[in-house]
Amino acid sequence: MGRTRTFDESDATRSALGVFWGQGFDGTAVPDLEEATGLSRSSIYHAFGSKRGLFDAAVSAYLEQVVRPRLAPLRADAVASDALAEYVRGLRRVMAEPTLPLAAHGCLLLNAATAPVGTDAGLREVIRDYREELAAAMQRGVEAARPDLDAASVAALATACTAHIVAAMTLVRVDADGACELLDNALTLLS
């Protein structure tokens, strides 16, 4: 009979998320994860299979706890006309505050995309799905904000907004002012 697990996997995942977000997958050592989660190496490997398994759980938590709640107004059945502008303004507020994780570290998934771990086929698929989810939300937001535009113009504006947001989330950890300027430009494009 196996031992009863005495820890909450979701708590361990949240703790590991902070480490991976700050240091990246390749910059995070198992002892960093042991310290952050309070778990032993054997408990981490037993629960998650590997450091990579814990990273995958952290990525899922990032999507569910950070990304999707912010996108929720753009994914609703009825999207408000100001939902996209509010989303962009919210990102800008977060990026302008250097103590918050997004401002300090950028986007976990976009960072992973440019790191050695980003060559993994499974992670590439997660990142591609994330970009598609973001693009679909931008499309819905533009449709609600600019009902005066034809379909081709809506698609072009949604692509431009997506590009500005991806660039800002990539740039913010090294140039927060530049990231905020990109978001300001996205707001200008929307108006």
From TrEMBL:
Presence of the UniProt keyword Oxidoreductase in the record: no
Entry keyword annotation includes Transcription: yes
A Pfam family the protein falls into: TetR_N
Leader sequence segment: none
Domain HTH tetR-type: from-to ranges: 6-66
Gene Ontology MF, one: DNA binding
Keywords associated with the record: DNA-binding, Transcription, Transcription regulation
Superkingdom of origin: Bacteria
SUPFAM superfamilies (alphabetical): Homeodomain-like, Tetracyclin repressor-like, C-terminal domain
DNA-binding region: 29-48
PANTHER family attached to this UniProt entry: HTH-TYPE TRANSCRIPTIONAL REGULATOR YJDC, TRANSCRIPTIONAL REGULATORY PROTEIN
Descriptive protein name: TetR family transcriptional regulator
Native organism: Microbacterium lacticum
Origin organism lineage: Bacteria, Bacillati, Actinomycetota, Actinomycetes, Micrococcales
